[in-house]
Design brief:
single chain, Dna Ligase, domain 1, alpha+beta, 2 domains, binds zinc ion, Arc Repressor Mutant, subunit A, three-stranded mixed beta sheet, three-stranded antiparallel beta sheet
Length: 123
């Protein structure tokens, strides 16, 4: 995949907000790049997700994006402030058993826990 100026700007924005899950609209508001409109952001997010440079997680009706990291982990996402709290993988060790029991070839999994962080739950 070619890293265009816009793709770079979006990846850079995700880097600077690495403790947050951002929706395409939030990214659009944060990215400082000319000639960028919301539909370009949506298309770019699709491309970056396809290239596995970023991950996407859908909470309700909103898709959030965050940078892919080498280490396999999952997140708790605050639906009020979008803070991401990394958590270890809870399911990895059970997968071989589950796969065998269900005669299922597992090719991936996605777990996101959502709710309110400490600060937001006291509001
Ligand atoms: Zn919060
Ligand atoms: Zn996992």
């Amino acid at each position: 995949m070619r890293m265009t100026k816009q793709r770079k700007a979006i990846v850079e924005t995700l880097k600077q907000n690495s403790n947050k899950a951002l929706s395409a609209e939030m990214i659009y508001q944060k990215v400082e790049s000319e000639n960028l409109n919301l539909s370009t952001v949506y298309r770019t997010m699709d491309k970056l997700t396809e290239a596995e440079l970023i991950h996407k997680t859908v909470v309700g009706t909103v898709a959030y994006f965050y940078l892919a990291e080498n280490e396999h982990k999952h997140f708790m996402i605050c639906t009020n402030c979008q803070k991401m709290i990394p958590i270890g993988c809870l399911i990895q060790k059970f997968l071989p058993d589950l796969a065998e029991k269900n005669h299922f070839k597992v090719t991936g999994h996605d777990i996101t826990i959502f709710g309110l962080c400490e600060e937001c739950s006291v509001l």
